[in-house]
Write a structure and sequence with these properties.
This protein has twelve helices and twelve strands. The protein has helices at about 20-30, 70-75, 80-95, 115-130, 200-205, 210, 215-220, 225-235, 250-255, 275-285, 290-295, 310-320, and strands at about 35, 45, 55-65, 100-110, 135-145, 160-170, 185-190, 240-245, 265, 300-305, 325-330, 335-339. The relative contact order is 0.16.
Length: about 350
């Protein structure tokens, strides 16, 4: 019987591959920002907080994944935007505290080493970091043969990704939601679609044929990155609350920011829900409440502020080519009501 090696078991020695390392290092270096220290291929990454210019910084961290949207990417054989989703799912949470993303790390795991797929995913991560103004400072590629299944030989091997973002905010400028008062306005910012939430449901209600066609292409639209426009709002206006409309939709996410004893009333007629959401609702016979509890319905981020600043906020967002809508208000009773 021949002797075994780690590579024969299905795990290549990536850390000893100069060509692979050069390619990865080049992509990582392309996202470098002031504060990044040391070698891109070290065991850990160093970052100099003094280079941020923040006088009294608090570190803010967030982690997330892309969920079963990955299965749609495998079905369509398109992996170059999944990395954008990964970055967005992390940094869009991070900025709700008013923090600026500083650096990002990624984790890729699969049962099979497919460098072309890994490269496509990484390109998306790099693009997401560039759009967010944060540095990709490292990550991990885990090859685990036999752990991830691969039932479809014609598709890329099954894989999963996770992201980790770290940012900073001045202690005096943290956005907490504590100053929210009855009468404050909810300004909704458009989404690019379903972002990366609810795909286990979407994959149930649409057939494989539909997912392979225009519907699937639409569903694969990457999550919109809100870092630059929201950071501009934070710098120029007194925002009271910032809400990322992710899993849980409006019903679960708004209460995470609104103080106890207060609630929100949303007017769904104040913006035009994109057609793809109604297509999904019709296909799955999904009740309205379930739609607004699962999906963003075309509103990916909500900022809460005094009505006096709404016009200026919309002008700022328009400069970033983003539509925004006055979708509701804070009321003196608990819960979220959608009229």
């Amino acid at each position: 019987m021949s002797s075994w090696t780690y590579e024969k078991a299905g795990v290549p020695h990536l850390k000893g591959d100069p060509a692979y390392n050069r390619k990865i290092a080049g992509l990582i270096r392309s996202t470098r920002v002031p504060g990044v220290c040391g070698d891109t291929l070290g065991f850990a990454s160093l970052f100099d907080l003094k280079k941020t210019g923040i006088k009294d910084p608090l570190l803010v961290a967030s982690t997330d994944g892309v969920g079963t949207k990955l299965e749609l990417a495998r079905l369509l054989g398109k992996h170059d935007t999944i990395g954008i989703d990964l970055v967005a799912m992390c940094v869009n949470d991070l900025i709700t505290s008013g923090a600026r993303p500083l650096f990002f790390l990624d984790y890729y795991a699969s049962g099979k080493f497919q460098p072309e797929i890994i490269g496509e995913v990484l390109k998306g991560v790099v693009e997401g970091c560039r759009q967010s103004g944060c540095a990709l400072v490292g990550g991990e590629t885990a090859i685990m043969p036999g752990f991830y299944t691969d039932r479809h030989a014609a598709r890329a091997a099954q894989y999963d990704v996770a992201g980790f973002s770290v940012g900073a905010v001045d202690r005096k400028k943290v956005v907490t939601g504590k100053t929210i008062r009855s009468g404050d306005v909810l300004l909704g910012i458009e989404s690019s679609g379903f972002h990366s939430n609810g795909y286990s449901l979407l994959r149930k209600i649409f057939s494989e044929k539909e997912l392979r066609g225009p519907v699937g292409q639409k569903l694969l639209t990457p999550t919109l990155l809100y870092v630059r426009p929201v950071m501009k709002l934070v710098r120029t206006l007194p925002l009271k609350g910032i809400v990322n409309i992710t899993g849980g939709g409006f019903y679960d996410n708004l209460p995470r920011v609104i103080p106890k004893g207060l609630g929100a009333v949303i007017d769904p007629k104040s913006w035009k829900v994109p057609a793809i959401f109604r297509t999904a609702q019709k296909a799955g016979k999904i009740p309205d409440r379930e739609m607004y509890k699962t999906f963003n319905m075309g509103i990916g981020m909500v900022v809460i502020l005094d009505k006096r600043f709404i016009k200026r906020a919309r002008q700022v967002l328009k400069a970033f080519k983003l539509d925004s809508y006055e979708i509701g208000k804070i009321v003196p009773r608990k819960g979220v009501e959608i009229l």
